[in-house]
Amino acid sequence: MKQRIDELPSFNIDIGPSKIYLQEVAEEDWATSWKQFYKVEKVSETITIVPSWEDYQPKLKGEKVIKLDPGMAFGTGTHPTTKLSIQTLENYLNPEDVVLDVGSGSGVLSIASILLGAKEVHAYDLDIVAVKSSLSNVKLNQLENKIHVQQNDLLRGINRKVDVIVSNILAEIIIQFVADAWNNLKDDGLFITSGIIQEKKQLVLDKLQEQGFRIESIREMDDWVSIVAKK
Prior knowledge:
Layout: H1 2-6, H2 30-33, E1 41-42, E2 47-51, E3 64-68, H3 80-92, E4 98-102, H4 108-115, E5 120-125, H5 128-140, E6 147-151, E7 162-168, H6 171-174, H7 178-183, E8 185-197, H8 201-211, E9 214-221, E10 224-230
Parallel strand pairs: 2-3, 4-5, 4-7, 5-6, 7-8
Antiparallel strand pairs: 1-2, 8-10, 9-10
Helix pairs in contact: 3-4
């Protein structure tokens, strides 16, 4: 390696002082060491995300707690896209709504939906690791009778008429199932999307409006966008 680095100047690449340092690093369980950076966080007016290994009691009247162990699945509740999704659900969900969670990840949005008043949630994810994570967190929050998790490729093959569809995934994926979302929503049903970067906002808006959706609201946090569209 040192010899190869020393050859770089022959290609007119200035490498500066060429020195290699070796240092022993204490062995660490990297699979769990990240947990020290994952703390209790209030993500909306009523929802607080609590790591499963933390001891926490609600401090405010009406505060709702989600116990969560994201494992290897996306969705700790602390990312702006997840916060936007939960805050939007809080503003738009009605009591007894039936919800589809597409790309459920850790299951955080499914759990939030029930705590915010939804009657039941059907959660889908293509990644079997995410499916297992969702199932684990649903059980952790004792909501097995209200949240139904299964492996599925977006909404392919799904035929349900629901009140709300929520999806916190990439814009390029969202536009692939806009038609399926339309077909699975009741009239006046809502399609809540997040995980959209600013540069892709118009791409998603155009696809939604092309399908016939009416844009209800657009919320932004940092460089991320959440869109609510009505059928």
